[in-house]
Design brief:
Chains A, B: It is an enzyme of class 5 (isomerase). Chains A, B: Keywords: Isomerase, Lyase. Chains A, B: This is Alanine racemase. The structure is a homodimer. With about 375 residues, chain A is of the alpha/beta class. The first copy, chain A, has 2 domains: about 130 residues, D-serine dehydratase-like domain (Lyase, Ornithine Decarboxylase, Chain A, domain 1); about 200 residues, TIM Barrel. The first copy, chain A, is about 30% helix and about 25% strand. In chain A, the strands form 3 sheets. In chain A, strands 1, 11, 12, 15, 16, 17, 18, 19, 20 and 21 form a 10-stranded mixed beta sheet that branches. In chain A, strand 17 and strand 18 form a beta hairpin. The longest helix of chain A is centred in the middle third of the chain and has 19 residues. The radius of gyration of chain A is 22 Å and the shape is elongated. The model of chain A has no long low-confidence stretch (mean pLDDT about 95). At the A-B interface, helix 5, strand 11, helix 10 and helix 12 of A face helix 5, strand 11, helix 10 and helix 12 of B.
Chain lengths: ~375, ~375
């Protein structure tokens, strides 16, 4: 029986073979460059996808909150890294988690380092997050005062163990010159490694953004990579050039509830609570909340003419449809929507249906 | 013990007294105009808030999906209305639900009407949704062909019962001239009522949008109102003029994880998975993802200088802070964030913490 027969309301589909290809490709790339791949599981948030990842030699993962770390604990990961400046209100929860799972966190200031020094009974690793130009989070690369305040403070603790430096070069999402961003990132990480390796001979450097990890072929001496989105990819990544549309591993199945042949619009049950409100601004000024694909028993196929979700509200999605799509579609059909931002769509939907009709888990809650 | 002691990660706060004031005010307004208030519970999605609503004479509710209708069934509502063009793939689920709860749906075409005629064993009411200018969903007000095709088809069924006409004048969110929109809405609903009341003497007319229901004082002969957002309000509604900031009943409590005194930014754990990515574009070109308030044991208080979330990603929120806020805040504090779109924020968070430290329910899933 087709997976399609299980769907009567908005449902996030996952194509396991595409997802496995994405995992395998990035895993090989890391291997080729002598790097360890520690994928960021904020995208999939799934134990089942974790199983697939382990088949490609992945032994450690990254997450973005302690709740997510809890979700994956006990799943035989060598280490779970929480790639978010640590929230000191969760110090005790961290300590409990560290009593059963190897955990590392990210630190960006001495205040939180001190709180952890005073509260951790169990060993926790830490990376110092560095800002080398993105400007969102992290210690500025030249701010040795803060870096050394963190290291000095951590030395007072026997449980807080320095692991290395981490950069999320998130500006690869917005700026076209990824090679230039990566040159700066490599320079920053190498400078820090050289400066501190005498004192910390085992320190490692890590970067983690899907555009860079997907498109670059020069990682210099960087030891580890932690991209997240690559496991699914999405329209944003396709626009950047990180992937092709055929590499997108998830699509929202959306029920068609009305068709307006004059306006060439199709109303689907697929709104902001399903897709999130991430949007691509098209060169012609239109806004694109997702691209339409046709669903069949094997998965999804592309349309020869572009059709897209032109507007959404909480539950409604309005598709601007090509003649081809208007022709093919009737009320009661399901259409597929490739998401603009797959991490957010997966977080909205909280489960996946595989193309062989199995439900795949996603962590609950935030 | 303060509710604040229960919070270590992003948590949506609800001020019950503000929420009750909003319910009471709208309930009185409806009463004053001889209208029935049938609030849209897609905003709160909460049985507990439903209990509060019943104390103000509210006996029927509106929802946006059959899953949400299921959530509220059995909670002693006289009727649950699903205000979304009905998804025919859920016809059997609807029939099951209608065997235990009084339900009504919205129809916009003859195809779905026919499917329901053929599948319903239990009585279900229906409204015809009319588009009088918003352009999102509904039968165009002058499209009597479709209206009559729906009515003719429904007559073949003994279980599908016509209730009336429904307009969601959602353009009140975007266009300044709400009185003009309401004049058109009233004219459309009155024209339809006059045209069909001989054949359907009990038919009613309903409108439902928070900006109109909050700001207008002339509803003509319209029988019912179904606004949703008013139960919480938010920054979008404040901008439109539907409410004042003091009427906003929910705020996200967000842990402070880093402060940059030079840039005057504060990093909080509060991203798109908590607030949603709805945004207000400010006159000066900046983007506002939420306004900062200070939390205390009694709830939240406003700052004399404006501070706001200037950018968000999946889990990160960056606050552009006033001098006052930078001065008052330290790492490990909690700050409050008034949401841009409270319906979406509540749907992201899936629970509320009241100011007396009780958890308030929110429906799971989409």
């Amino acid at each position: 029986m087709s997976y399609l027969s299980k769907i009567s309301s908005p449902t996030l589909l996952i194509d396991e073979s595409i997802c496995r290809n994405n995992l395998e490709r990035m895993s090989r790339k890391a291997q080729k460059h002598g790097m360890k791949l520690i994928p960021h599981f904020k995208t999939g948030q799934s134990k089942e996808i974790g199983k697939w990842a382990r088949e490609y030699g992945i032994k450690e993962i990254t997450v973005s909150s302690i709740k997510m770390a809890n979700y994956f604990s006990g799943d035989s990961w060598d280490n779970i890294h929480i790639a978010f400046p640590f929230n000191p209100l969760e110090a005790n929860t961290l300590d409990q988690l560290a009593s059963k799972t190897r955990i590392s966190v990210q630190l960006v200031n001495a205040e939180v380092t001190e709180i952890l020094c005073n509260s951790l009974k169990n060993e926790v690793g830490f990376f110092i997050e560095i800002d080398a130009g993105y400007g969102r989070t992290g210690v500025e690369v030249s701010d040795f005062g803060t870096i050394e305040a963190i290291l000095r403070k951590a030395k007072e603790s026997s449980t807080l163990v320095f692991k290395g430096f981490y950069i999320h070069a998130g500006h690869t999402y917005y700026e076209k010159d990824i090679p230039k961003i990566y040159e700066e990132t490599r320079l920053a990480l190498n400078m820090l490694k050289n400066k501190y390796r005498t004192e910390y001979p085992n320190l490692v450097t890590r970067l983690g953004d899907t555009p860079g990890c997907s498109t670059m072929d020069d990682f210099g001496d960087i030891d580890e990579m932690g991209p997240g989105n690559f496991v699914f990819y999405d329209l944003t990544q396709e626009r950047i050039g990180s992937c092709q549309k055929k590499d997108i591993a998830v699509a929202l199945a959306a029920p068609v509830v009305d068709i307006n042949k004059e306006k060439k619009t199709i109303l689907v049950h697929a709104g902001g609570v399903h897709l999130s409100k991430d949007v691509l601004n098209e060169p012609d000024g239109s806004r694109n909340f997702g691209e339409i694909v046709l669903l069949n028993d094997q998965g999804w196929i592309f349309l020869s003419e572009h059709s897209y979700v032109k507007s959404i509200s909480q539950e409604h999605g309005i598709i601007q449809a090509s003649d081809e799509l208007i022709e093919k579609t009737k009320v009661g059909d399901l259409l597929g929507i490739l998401p603009v931002h797959s991490c957010m769509t997966a977080d909205c939907m909280k489960s996946y249906l595989s193309l062989d009709g199995q439900w795949v888990d996603h962590a609950e809650g935030n």
